[in-house]
Amino acid sequence: MSFYRTRNIIMFDYSLNGLHLDRVDKIIDLGFLFVPSLDFRPHIDHIVGKAVRILGFIRRHSASFNSPKCLSVLYCALVRSVLEYGSIVWDPYTVGDILRLDRVQNRFLNNAGYCLNISHPPHDYQPINDILCLESLSVRRQTHSYRFISGLLNGKIDAPRLLEKLNIHVPSNTRYQGTFYLQTDRSNYAANAPLPRLMRVYNLYNL
Fold first, then answer.
1. Cα–Cα distance for residue pair 137/107, rounded to 1 Å
2. Tens of pLDDT, residues 34-75
3. Would you tell me the crossing angle of helices 41-61 and 95-115 to the nearest 10 degrees?
4. 175: number of CA atoms within 13 Å, CB side?
5. CA angle, 45 then 51 then 56, to 5°
6. What is the superkingdom listed in this entry's lineage (predicted)?
């Protein structure tokens, strides 16, 4: 696979010990789906599809459940864990991708409302969530990002190559008080790359 962000693609036929290497346009490595453009939208498609299938399995086998705690544990262990694995790397910034992830949790809440016989207005899942007490997926992703950067700074995460790439702000006479200095990027892709996004989240948490 050749990774690129330009229109002029250089294609080269690689070989190893005389054996031709087949070119692929996607690959799963360590649970992440990579494509040549390094766009994580296909990865989000992949995990949403997987989570929906697991959610269907839970729905088929939990129709007679009446315990909020049991349903919540099933969802968190089997579905939410899929939606959150490695989110500090691929955390989406577009509204469309964020909503696709949220819809999975809303599907679960809708099913839980049916099992627990909780009345609620159409497409309003707050009365159900008041009982199940599930945090927003977006809030949880931000919390994970903050904890990751905190771990790097406090030495709880041993990743010196990442630590040296953090733009720690040196205090001066300016009014800027953020922990990290964030440079201005020309594209949303660069501004929302993992490290700039993580530093931005950390600054927001420490205002």
1. 13
2. 998 888 999 999 999 999 999 999 999 988 898 999 999 999
3. 0
4. 0
5. 125
6. Eukaryota
| Residue 103 neighbours by CB distance under 10 Å | 12
- What phi and psi values does residue 43 have, to the nearest 5 degrees? -65, -40
pLDDT digits (tens, 9 = 90+) for 98-113: 999 999 999 999 999 9
In angstroms, the CA 104 to CA 107 distance is 5
Residue with tokens 């399995």: 57
To which H or E segment does residue 15 belong? strand 15-16
* Residue for token pair 């995990």: 47
Query: Judging by DSSP bridges, how do beta strands 32-34 and 27-29 pair with one another?
Result: antiparallel
Give the H/E segment covering residue 122. Answer: none
Say how far apart CA 51 and CA 157 lie, in whole Å: 29
CB 91 within 8 A of CB 141: yes
Tokens 């630590």 sit on residue = 163
Angstrom distance (rounded) from CA 171 to CA 178: 9
Taking the C-alpha atoms of residue 150 and residue 161, their distance in angstroms, rounded to an integer, is: 15
- Nearest-10 Cα torsion for 93, 94, 98, 101: -100
pLDDT, average across residues 126-136 = 94
Cα-trace Rg, the chain: 21
Q: Measure the CA–CA gap between 191 and 183, rounded to whole angstroms.
A: 9
